[in-house]
Design a protein that fits this description.
disordered C terminus; globular; mainly alpha
């Protein structure tokens, strides 16, 4: 059994074909993890009918997954850097596959939410670890930039294709099939990982940080619980106020405790790099905007316009097609000319898409609806590769897992908040449908306009010469830490 598992191998020993096979396995893991965020959205009306779920139950079906992803990504990335990325990657695949199987067997909404959390536990060990494996597998900078571009584009592709694949599965085989489809893909990835992916670890390992991990979960969980349940309980209820207090106190605890640790879970010194900090914020804004669009749109198409799940998924085909076409080209453009132009285009497209959506109603001609969705396709096709590249480029390899984990955590936090906020804005109008729901949607479109404008501003601020200088100084700091105390003192003198 162990004979088929390759020994620890350096990236320089791999052939070009071998490296791209490793990249394909990493991309497959990204597709199943990220697609499970969007594929479930188109199944929500069927889940609601079959399991008699409330609107908050539907929100938790999505957010139990993304909340666990956001909360444990940092732990998974640092653990993989310490004990071995291939080993953690394999454990993650197995947990994700088991969670998918249990989701398909869930007898009630509570069981489904619990199984989604188990799925996400596996997912935390896939995306950031796959990114770190990709960075380690491609040591040559230009080739690495292209590989990161391909890897980053998979997130957008999976998000966009999820509703289409989900619609076909829901109409053809029922909503449970959107989870069962993961099982054979995960099984194939497990075999491929055992045969092809070399083991790798960070040069400088990081110790487990239980206090930081607890504070992270309390901060995210408190915030998301308050947003989702505020619609039913009210913002002034004791439970909501207590939840918000827990979130605020946990955030203050992170800021006070983490800088004192030699190996913090949340490496705040990374945020000295303006491009890195902007990439995390843009990841949060981007996925908050797209998840809000997706949650509202699948409800609008099925509950307001009366479409089937497949028809609703096909209406999102323009988003998927543009993502397929634009993402690889965007990755190449980022490698050749930098991230500024794609990020400016992405921010403008998201803001314009939110503005144009104000005119969508129950009787809006379908061609006009699809034309609006094209703007969201342009946004999704151009936003992921530059964000992913910005987050990890310029950082030493020892920080690849942590940097990739923070970028992924930003995405998942954005997705979680997007669904939570959107359900709170339009949840009460969902049952009434028609113009009541489309009027309630307007708050969501204002949110999306603001997020698009935020991405546009951050793109301009984070891609200049001064921003690049902060990235270089942050990278030098971590390279000095890798060399030890003498190197750290030397680097400190240079930074000053």
């Amino acid at each position: 059994m162990t004979a088929s598992i390759p020994p620890t191998t350096t990236a320089g020993e791999l052939t070009r074909r071998h490296r791209f096979l490793v990249l394909a396995i990493c991309c497959a893991s990204v597709i199943v993890v990220v697609m499970d965020i969007s594929i479930v959205n188109v199944a929500l009306p069927a889940i609601r009918r079959d399991l008699h779920a409330s609107v908050s139950g539907l929100q938790w079906t999505v957010d139990a997954y993304t909340l666990v992803l956001a909360g444990f990504l940092l732990l998974a990335g640092s653990t993989a850097d310490r004990i071995g990325r291939r080993r953690v990657f394999q454990i993650g695949l197995a947990a994700f596959g088991l969670g998918s199987l249990l989701c398909g067997l869930a007898p009630g909404i509570g069981w489904l939410i619990a199984a989604r959390a188990l799925q996400a536990v596996g997912g935390t060990m896939l995306n950031p670890v796959a990114m770190a494996i990709t960075v380690d597998t491609f040591p040559e900078p230009a080739e690495r930039a292209r590989a990161i571009g391909v890897f980053g584009s998979m997130s957008g592709l999976a998000l966009a294709l999820g509703p289409i694949v989900g619609g076909a599965l829901v109409d053809g085989l029922g909503w449970r099939s959107v989870f069962w489809i993961n099982v054979p893909i995960v099984a194939a990835a497990l075999v491929g990982t055992a045969l092809l992916v070399p083991e790798s670890r960070a040069a400088r390992t990081r110790r487990f940080d239980p206090v930081g991990q607890t504070l992270m979960i309390l901060m995210l969980g408190g915030l998301v619980y308050a947003v989702i349940e505020s619609g039913a309980l009210g913002w002034t209820s004791p439970a909501i106020l207590a939840s918000l207090a827990v979130a605020v106190l946990s955030a203050l605890g992170i800021l006070g405790y983490e800088p004192r640790r030699a190996d913090p879970l949340l490496e705040l010194r990374l945020f000295r790099s303006v491009p890195f900090s902007a990439a995390i914020l843009m990841a949060l804004f981007a996925l908050c905007g797209f998840s809000a669009f997706l949650f509202v749109t699948t409800q609008y198409l099925q509950n307001v316009r009366g479409m089937s799940a497949l028809a609703a998924g096909l209406c999102l085909l323009p988003v998927g097609m543009l993502t397929v076409v634009l993402s690889p080209r965007t990755g190449r453009l980022v490698g050749a000319r930098g991230p500024r132009l794609p990020l400016v285009v992405a921010g403008a497209a998201l803001a314009l898409g939110g503005g144009a959506s104000f005119w969508l109603g129950p009787a809006t001609p379908l061609p006009a609806v699809l034309a609006v969705y094209l703007l969201f396709g342009v946004f999704l096709g151009t936003v992921n590769p530059p964000i992913t590249n910005t987050a990890v480029s310029g950082m030493p390899r020892s920080m690849a897992g942590v940097a990739a984990s923070l970028a992924s955590a930003g995405r998942q936090t954005g997705t979680t908040l997007g669904v939570a906020i959107t359900g709170t804005i339009g949840g009460s109008a969902l049952a009434r449908g028609g113009t009541a729901f489309t009027r309630a949607e307007r708050g969501v479109w204002w949110l999306i306009i603001g997020l698009g404008a935020g991405i546009l501003v951050l793109a301009l601020l984070s891609t200049g010469r001064r921003a690049a200088g902060t990235a270089g100084r942050a990278a030098a700091l971590f390279e000095a830490l890798d060399r030890g105390p003498a190197g750290e003192r030397s680097s400190t003198r240079r930074v000053r």
